[in-house]
Each structure stands twice: as C-alpha cells, then as structure tokens.
Fold each of these.
Amino acid sequence: MGDGPYLLGIDVGTTVSKSVIIDYEGNEVAVARCPTAVKHPIQSSSEIDMLDVWEAICSTIQELIHVHKIKPEKIKGIGVCSCVGGVWLLNERKMPFRNTILWNDGRAASLLEKWEQQGIMQEIFDISANAIFPGMTLPSLRWLAENEPKTLREAKYLFCGKDWVRFKLTGDIHTDISDISQMPCDARTREYSDKLLEICGIEAYRELFPEVIESDKVIGGVTKEAAQATGLQEGTPVVVGLADVQASLMGAGATRFGDACSIIGTSALNNVVMDYACFEPSGVGFMFMMEKDIWLRSLTNTSGTINIEWFLNNFFMDEKRKAARKKTSIYKLLEDQAATIPIGSGGVIYHPYINTTGVAAPFRNAAARAQFFGIEITHTRINLLRAVYEGLALAMRELYNSIPVEINEVILTGGGARSPFWCQMFADCTGKKMIVLQGEEFGGKGVGILAGLGIGVYRDLKDAREKTQRITREYEPDFNKTAQYDLVFELYHSIHSALQKQWWQRHNMLINLSKNY
C-alpha cells in the first residue's frame, strides 16, 4: 500500500454501506463495509433508520483509518453516492424524525395500479422517461400524504441518501441532477417538474425539495463534529455526489455516448449512455442523468443478485454453513453444480422478479413476482438453481434488445461480475461481448473520481476514464449457445406476457386475506 494521496468514495447501499479508498490512478486501496438493518413495519414495506446509516458510515471510515492505516491527511477529497428514490426527511431542526422509505418499498403498489388505470403512469413517463415503481419518491410521497399527513406537516427537507450523509459531513442541504432524475424531474429540461407534482397530487410539498447544484462542486469541508465522529481531517473537501447508478458508470468509465454497462447488484440495471433524452421503449425503464448533458437510458430488473441469495438461503443453507467453516466459496460450489445442467435447465424457466417492487421493464407491473415454470418429478434443486442464473441472463437479453441503440459489448459491474460462470452465460445468452474491469466497488470508486474532478485531479471525464479504467477479463459469446438460448428466451417471454392480470389477482388476494387476521 502506498502513502497517498487518496480519494474517498462513500456508497450508501440498501443493506450495506461502504467506504472506498482509491488512489489517483483509480486503484482500490482499501474497502470497509457495514450492514444496515432494513425494517418491514407493514406488508411490502422497506425502511431504514437514517441514524443507523450515519453510524454505519462512521464505522466504515473509522475502519479505513484504524485497521487499514489510511492517514486522514492523505485523503484529499470525498464523494458520496446512494441508492435512488424513496423519501429521506428532516424536520425544522434538521433532524430525522421518521425512518426512510427506501426505493424497494412496495406499500404504494395499489396506488400505482390506480394511476395505471387513470393513465397517470404514462403521463409520468412522458415527462420524466421513468416508469416509476412503488418505492420511488412520487408515489411514496403521495402515500404519506394519504396515510401519514402528520409526517409531512413536520417535514422541512426531502432529499436522498447521499444528501443525508453529505449533510452529516458538511451541514450542507442540496441535491444534484443525478438524484432528481428519480424525483419529479422533466427529462428534457433536466429540472424539477411542477407538472409531475400536480399530476400526482402532491404539489403542496414542492418546497420540501432542495436546490439542485453541480455534482462535482466542492460544497464544503468536513465539519469539526463530523471529524470527531469519523476520524476524518476537519476541512477535507466534499463534493455534492451522485446517485449510485451514475456513480457506478463513472467508476467503470462508461461515460462515452453509446457505452453500455450492466450493474449486477441487488437490482440489475442495464444502461446505455445517451446524448439525448430517450423515451424508447415507451412506458418502461428509467432515465438517469449526469452533468455534461449526459442521459442514461436504463432498463432495470429490480431484482438482481437477491434472486441467487434467496435461493441459496432457502435451498443451500447446509452447504453455506459448511463452506463458511471451511472458508471456501459457496458461490463457486453453486456455479459448479449449475454448470452440470444443460442450457434451458431441463425445461425450468425462472422469472427473476423476486423483489417487492414489481417490474419496471421491459413491461410495467408493480404486482409482478418471481416464479418457476415447468417443474417435473425428474428435476432437482440444481435444475432450479441453473434456472435462476439463466433468468437474470434472459432478463438482460430482453432489456438490451429493447433499447434503440446498437450494442456490441457490455461492461459488467456489481457482485454478479465476480462470477466467470455467470459472465460467460451473459455473453452466450445475449450474443454480446462482456467486459469486466479491475476493482469491485464501482459506486465508491465513481464518487471518488467525482471528488477528484472537483478538486482538479482530473481535467474532465475523458481524462478520468483514461487514468482509472483497466480491463481484467473479457468474455466472447459462443453463438451456437446463443442460438440455443433463442429457444429458451421465446418461452421465457411468452410466459410473462400471459401473466399480467394474474399478478394483480394475486396482489388483491393477499390484501383480502390479510383482512382476516
């Protein structure tokens, strides 16, 4: 390990917060992680305590300093990113007074069903290029207005997770273009949309939204109080920051028009860098924005690696415990077993919609959920395991095929990129070359680079990319296997196309059944 200078990137995740130290060449020098507990106070809800988030961040920074021996004075700039959407609130005293509603909260699904019927969902898309899901800011705010009006009477400030951590570091309350992408934003003007607030019936809360400023602007320095809590040097420059999707693409160097990057994490986001606001395909997916007139067209499967985690925790717990005792990789065991099953999983199809947020692309259905199709007595859990892996690959294929841009190669980041087995499956299933870069924490790396832009380490995005991007593995598609996946994909697609009404029937059934308890 060298002796700096360094940049610090803080990544506020859904369940794990991370702090990442990089050098000016983009090398990951040290990483510290701390889990945060997600709470589920009512059915389909997902919340987190804002103070728990701050304590987790303090813990990770202290670990960098005391365990990894990073000298605070060697950290020259700090950036923060976080998961998008949800509702993070402060009161008049600039204190949190209610748990945050997270992006994967599902309590507003019934509201979205009504908005769908009324044509409001399409109106929202036509302005924002976002097919919002229940945990995004607009429906969550409307849910609070209808169910917790007292909460909104007490609220003074509404922002996102990275803004909360930056506030704790510097005392600043602003946001940036990347986070308002998933708030009431007009994708064409790149500004807040009062029309969206009006459409959603929440125009009374416009004053809660903070001023928007440049993502790479140095907004202040670490305060004395924050320095005492974290161990950072007082006065260390902090930039405004980014949403986690944009941060991950910056960390991966996917900042040129036409670049494609898939983030295979808790959710699986498939992104293409655009130089205009792309509204195709209509009614689905998201628009993420960055500075320098960059738009990211994103078609997202809201359930990524959590499909594998769910399967592991329910069908491979004994093996998981044994692997932990032997200090071997449970994922290598899973992949070795899944590789013994031919393409198509013996006729088992899995749709990877296990998250409570439903589906936002390639179709829009807040009630959609995962399922296995085609199980017979000859199948084992290994057939189902292979089907789960294939389900994410088939979802990636479907989503990239839906974006109106020719794509030949894809940069892979996130936990899924660690798996050579899965990377090759992605290449074979999509017919596109997959590229894996050096490093793992691309969100933290991205806002570390953003901090470098803010303090002048890099001239521009091109300079930052050339100095920090390094390819470690490449996976060429086997087109014979791609042809086999053509058959699997045809069935995969036809099944979910036939289940739209049944998912809502399930949703309403659960509501009615819950009334009996």
Amino acid sequence: MRLESKKDFQALMLSLLNPLKPHYTAEGAGVSLGVTSTNYDEKAILMEGFSRPLWGLVPFWAGGGKEPWFEAVCRRGLAAGTDPENPEFWGAPGEYDQRFIEMGAIAFGMLLAGDVLWEPLDSEEKRRLAAYLYTINEHQIPCCNWLLFRVLVNLALKENGMPYDRERLFEALDLTESFYLGSGWYRDGDSNQKDYYVSVAIQFYSLIYAMFMEDEDKERCGRFRERALLFAKEFIYWFDGDGEALPFGRSLIYRFAQAAFFEACLLADVAPFPVPVMKGLIVRHIKYWMQQPVFDREGILTIGYAYPNLVMAEKYNGPGSVYWSMMAFTVLALPDKHPFWTAEAAEFPKVPDICSMPEADMLVRRYRHHVTAYVPGVYSPNGHGQIVAKYGKFAYDTKFGFSVAKSCYELYENCPDSMLAFFIDGYVYVRRICEERAVREDSVWSRWSPYPGIEVETTIIPTENGHKRIHKIESTVKCEAYDCGFSVGAKLSEAFASREEKGFCLAENKRMKCAVSSAEGEGVLITADPNTNVLYSKTRIPSIKYKIQKGVQTLCTEITAEVKEEALTRLVKDWKPYW
C-alpha cells in the first residue's frame, strides 16, 4: 500500500472511518461504539462519537474530497443534535461540560469546510446550531487547553456571520498566552503539564486562529507562528527515525494525532523544516500506527495505545474518544498543487544527539533507532488516571514505552519500570511528588520522598548507550529498593531471554535488550502483570535489588538499552496495514 499522493491519504482516511457507518444513530447525531463508561454522560458520549471523526473529514472536504454519505449524515446530525425537540438532542451543556470539547471539532468544520457543514443547513438549523455553540460563553470551563475551544467556537460564529462573544474570545486568548513558558512551550493551564496537549491542542489551535485572524490580530498571530517555529525545533525530538513517537503523559489514546502539529504548520504556511522532511516524519508516523493492532474485528479503533488496553486509560476516554486520532489527516486540507503531495518523503533530519528542554521539564537523547526522554517528575493536581506512571518515571522511550500500575501491593502489579521502587511492609512506593527539580544541559536532578522518613536526591545522566542514575538516600527506615530498567517484550514469539546475577540483570528479545548493573545489589527480573506496558502486552523488567539501611547512602545504577534492528515500519514501498 502506498502513502504518497493526496489520493493515498484520502483513501486511508476513509478506510478508517467507513467502519463507523453502521454505528451512527438514526438521525446521525451520535455514534455508538461501545459500552464502557466515562466521567461524562451517555448523551455526551454519543456526541463525542459524532464529533471526533470530523477532525479527519473536515480537512478531507476542505481539500476537495467528496463523500456524500458522510456529508449527509453529518448535516443531519448537526440538525438533530442541536434540536431540543429531537430525541437525539445532545443535551443542554452545563458547567465544565464535555460538550464544549466536542464543539471544537464542529467549529473547525465551520471554519474550513463551511460549504459542507454550514451553508446547506436551512436558516432555522443554522440558528439552533449557532445558539447551541454560543453556550460555551455562558458556562465555566477548565483553565487549560479548553480555552481554545471557546476561541474556535467564537471564531467560527464570527466567520459565518452569527452572534459571537468578542470579549470572551480575546479573554480566552489572553489566558492561553499567560501559559507560555518559552521556546514554544506552554503549560496546559492550571494542570502545569507539558505533554501532547501542547502540540495537538494549544499549538494546533493557535495556528488555525492565525490562519483566519492575520489581518485583525496581526501581532498575536505573528507570535503564534514564531512560537510554532521554536516549538518544532524541540518537539521533533519526540519522534525517532522509524516513525514512532514518545509515549509520555496522558491522552495517549489519540495515537497518530501525535504528528498533527507538523500538519498544522503546513496548513498555516509555517515552515520549521523543509517540506520533504515533514512529509517523511508524517508518513513514517502514520505507517507505524497503521501496522499496530489498535483496531477491533470491525476495523474500529480501540481504547489503548499500541494495543487495546483499558488499564492505561483515563476517566474521560470513551469509545469514540480515540477518533481524535483523525487529526493525523489535517494535511488533506492542503490544495492539490501544494508541494507536500509531490515531495519525496525525506529521512529524519540530522540534529544533535541531546536536547535540553527546561521549559518542558525534559532532557531528550537520541540513540540508534530509539529516543529516550529523561524527566524529573512533574505532576498535575488533577488525577485523571495513572498520573504517576505517565509523568513520574525517570525515563520514557519510543521503543521501550512505559508501564502503568495495577496496584501498589506487589512489584509485578506495580510494574515500576524506570523507577526506584521501595518495598515496605508489603507495599510499593515510588516517586510520586517531586519537591525540587532541575533540567540541565547534560543531566536531570530531582529531590523526592516516596515514604515518610525517606528522602531521595536522584541525578540522571544520559550516556552513549543508556543512562546512569545516582541516588542519594537518607532514610530512617530499613527496607528494600529496586532500581528498574525498561520493560522488554516477553512473548514466546519474541524469543525472550534473561539473566540474573549479583549486580546485574538482563532482559532481551530478538529486537531489543535492557541491562541494569551496579557494583552492589542483586539482579532481579520482575515478571510484570500482562497488559501493563503501553507498547507490549507481556513484559519483564530487569532491576537491581538494594538493601536500604538507616542513615545516608548512595546508590549508583547504570541502565543500557539497545534496539538491535530497524523497526519494520521504515519508509518502504511495500508496507502493509495491520488489517
């Protein structure tokens, strides 16, 4: 299967959405894809199922694509979902309502593909839709990337000649800009997180705004473009040369939206890299994802990351949430004569091996066929799910991934890969609250306490083949601690092998290996519970077990990691999708 021309991208996008057709409700206002629940109501779950595919359909229509079935069902759905007399009415939004998120995709459609989603509606349907969207100005929303949904909605209403709230629009923009940290990075509002919401939300929506408000808000639009250029120079480090992106932070179920920022750059005529370089990154990334078992037997995307997995999900992950992934097809909005469509996909650009990102609280090191990010551990006060596992480990890697915990009772249930895990009275304690931190040019430092009476200072130093960890521990408690390396896939088909001995532990399969070594301690291989790693459904974790004494001691652990062969998703002509 080829992925080069606009027709190739269009065909792939439709092949991902066609399996949804039998699952639209009678009036088209909802898509019912499963029975799992969320922290929002069932009406909002159905609305989400309707809205998320628009992130792919809208660019498709904007770029000249035609698909009558989806055009008709989406227009019917907009009319029914905003009609209080219709049984498929989405429901009146309230405070901090999920419906405000879904309005973003509809506004995106009104901005880029109004000839499909807006103009064909009759005057009453337009009035109801506009009035429904306007409610985002009448309720409280979280102080985070949600502010830009308010921006998109008011911009869409403005561009289509409907009542909008200019004051709310610019208030939301000013608040968003108050999150700016430098080097293109923002914090995600009150959460203080720096993750894919910076790229797929704040940067992405800012560039959409810049496309429409260049004349009216020139200075701000210029800042948004400049920040996108700065951000791209660091964000590209989150991708390896085989197309895989860094599994880090929350909302990883959006999968191939990870590269959507670069597509927004192309759409907004922002050029951080030559077009062939960005095409190569986008093509390899989509090919990687299309070869992962992320679809069910009907071809519908599942909740999870590299395979179906509810253990790693957040409370706001519904059956339709995953279709935010369709942002990966933003590039379809480019005109037919855009150079992207004729460019040859170039290899990954040559960049320095190491990049310090203090604004992102991260130090990234590029290795052969994989990328590792070293972080000091910064958390959100909002416990969306598995926050410690998604932000608090010492290292995150494009090829090794990370694991989430099923409990804090046993090591094999806690799965503390890339962590120093203290085992006390039958419980596992890891880095949960980082009291102080520093990201330097060649190291990451943090001070933390896993348990009352234990204080740890950890310094992480990247090396040519992995990294060193130096832990200075002051403890009033005698216990054991396990310094853990990366998880390694351990299915029989992966030809797993291991070795445990004094001061050394190795986990290896035919594609990769991780070794953990020290001048003291015992090598221990942890058999993690299945379905805990985001990349591999069965893993084992190499570690060194130390005896922690009362007083002050220093532990030195070295982790080496190697990817032994190129990923199968290289830029080749004969790649085949998973299904």
